[in-house]
Design goal:
Blueprint lengths: L10 E2 L2 E6 L4 H14 L3 E4 L6 H8 L6 E6 L5 E6 L4 H11 L4 E3 L20 H4 L1 H12 L6 H18 L5 E6 L3 H10 L16 E4 L4 H7 L17 E3 L5 E3 H6 L1 H6 L1 H7 L1
Parallel strand pairs: 2-7, 3-6, 3-7
Antiparallel strand pairs: 1-2, 4-5, 4-8, 9-10
Helix pairs in contact: 1-3, 6-7
């Protein structure tokens, strides 16, 4: 076993990795569970520091949705939805709720390609378990050759996470499932960093507010948390806000007409 390597594949030194599929409720719940068990001193997420201020501001608006908008040099505009069903956003929300430092440790990359993973619905996590799902994913994708951007991103994330590990005893790192193996292998041999790719923070245009999302409200009906204070009674699905208060899903559904009326205003801003 290499120096610093742990028997648990989800732990490297004092860095606890939580790989996720983005924008999937099952993985956001796993982030919440592992955060509660670990009680970290710091949280790190797979987002570049350029987006920090905008993402934190958008996270404060939860459960209402936002989209962070910014341009690339190619002229393409990138839209980053800030949804409570995303594991990274849940990690940010939990860090803020518990007054913990949250670090954005990804490399700022332009022109990143879109990928579609040939995997079962993430609902399978509830049937076979989180770790079994992750292992099946790695077995399916393990033979693929990473693209150059991924190599740079994974080395950057590992370097930043290791630096945090020297400052804090317990660090929770939430990253994409496809990057987990690369980040973990890099975290064992401690690559140099940072690896460049920084955008001017002023290039982030704005946060578009009031974005309606039927998918979010549908998922809320199945999202119940049984931790923390003021939890609704059994059988009462609810959403937890960044301030720690609860909104009953019936109340959330009543917001749909108002959100629908905001569509035209939001579309105009985009």
């Amino acid at each position: 076993m290499a120096p610093g390597e742990s028997i648990d594949p989800f732990i490297s030194e004092n860095i606890h990795l939580v790989p996720i599929l983005h924008n999937r409720l099952e993985f956001a719940l796993e982030v919440h569970r592992r955060f509660t068990e670990l009680r970290p001193e710091a949280v790190a997420v797979e987002l570049p520091p350029t987006l920090r201020d905008k993402v934190l501001a958008a996270a404060e608006r939860l459960p209402f949705l936002s989209v962070v908008v910014y341009p690339e040099k190619s002229g393409r505009t990138v839209y980053l939805p800030i949804e409570p069903v995303d594991g990274i956003i849940e990690a940010v929300r939990l860090a803020r709720e518990h007054s913990l430092p949250v670090f954005f440790v990804d490399r700022d990359t332009e022109g990143y390609p879109l990928f579609k993973d040939p995997l079962p619905d993430p609902y399978a996590v509830t049937q076979i378990g989180y770790e079994a799902y992750c292992r099946a994913y790695w077995e399916e994708r393990g033979s693929e050759t990473p693209i150059p951007d991924d190599l740079l991103r994974e080395r950057t994330i590992a370097s930043q996470a290791l630096a945090l590990g020297r400052r804090y005893q317990r660090v929770l790192l939430v990253c994409g499932l496809s990057h987990f193996s690369g980040i973990r292998s890099n975290s064992i041999w401690d690559p140099p960093g940072p690896w460049g790719g920084k955008r001017d923070p002023g290039s982030c245009w704005e946060i578009c507010r009031g974005i309606p999302s039927g998918r979010f409200f549908q998922r809320c009906l199945f999202c119940r948390e049984d931790t923390k204070r003021n939890v609704p009674g059994p059988g009462r699905p609810a959403i937890r806000t960044s301030s720690g208060s609860w909104i009953d899903c019936a109340c959330a559904m009543s917001c749909l007409p108002r959100l629908k009326s905001s569509t035209t205003r939001t579309a105009g801003r985009i």
